[in-house]
Specification:
Number of strands: 8
Low-confidence stretches: none
Number of domains: 1
CATH superfamily: Vaccinia Virus protein VP39
CATH architecture: 3-Layer(aba) Sandwich
Distance between the termini: 30 Å
Radius of gyration: 17 Å
Structural class: alpha/beta
Length: 235
């Protein structure tokens, strides 16, 4: 069943320049496009999303949410960044993505409104940008059904990640806008694991994501020293 996107195309047209940049694979959003197939493949391998109710927390311009909807999931993407949400809605209208909706609401507010409503919750590249990441983890745990999956990705906090994710990616390679990441907000895997345990999530799989600036290629590995992904299940 297709749900139309709840948005006014005329209002969204104001954001078309940003939308076309966000969805331009050669723009400043290129890293998100490059890592998206890796993230989606890993999620789908552990928990096939087709036919499931999926929530994408911090969905931004909808790159992952859109891809999951195209795999057959019923997707809700949420974010507090109005412009990014408008981008996601406009793209869904332009490309007629089925089964995706977007809302401007926090994970905590949605958890109070719809506890246990989702089979899968994803929260990618978002925890390192919020003041209280443990609160988001707790909300994600509340939003997923018992036995359901929650997926996180974020950046480790150590000297190597400072050099590679901040100095390298933002200043030397110009992969990301400067100021994208603040070192003090980065999260060690042990810290994220403790947030998960406290929220009633059992960590089942971890993966690292690596990047070679010479070949401009990303891949998943066992090295969680810089970018890493967690898969957890609700008991």
């Amino acid at each position: 069943m297709n749900h139309p996107v709840n948005a006014d195309p005329g209002e969204l047209a104001k954001f078309s320049d940003l939308a076309h940049r966000w969805w331009d694979e050669d723009s400043e959003f290129r890293p998100l496009h490059q890592i998206n197939p890796l993230r989606l493949g890993w999620i789908n391998e552990l928990c096939p999303v087709a036919g499931r109710q999926v929530l994408d927390v911090g969905c931004g311009g909808g790159i992952l949410a859109d891809a999951m909807a195209r795999r057959g999931a019923q997707v809700l993407g949420i974010d507090l960044a109005t412009k990014a949400l408008k981008v996601a809605q406009l793209h869904a209208i332009e490309t007629q993505t089925p089964n995706v909706q977007y809302r401007e609401i926090s994970a905590e507010a949605l958890a109070a409104e719809q506890p246990g409503a989702f089979d899968v919750v994803t929260c990618m590249e978002m925890l390192e940008h919020v003041p209280d990441p443990s609160s988001v983890v707790t909300a994600c745990a509340a939003l997923v059904k018992p036995g359901g999956w929650v997926f996180f990705s974020t950046i480790n906090r150590n000297p190597k990640s400072f050099l590679m994710a901040i100095v390298g990616a933002e200043y030397v390679l110009n992969l990301l806008p400067r100021g994208t990441h603040e070192y003090v907000k980065l999260i060690r895997p042990a810290e994220l694991a403790s947030y998960c345990r406290a929220a009633g999530l059992e960590l089942s799989h971890t993966r690292g994501m690596e990047y070679n600036p010479l070949t401009q290629r990303y891949w998943l590995s066992g090295d969680t020293s810089v970018n890493y992904l967690f898969a957890a299940q609700k008991g």
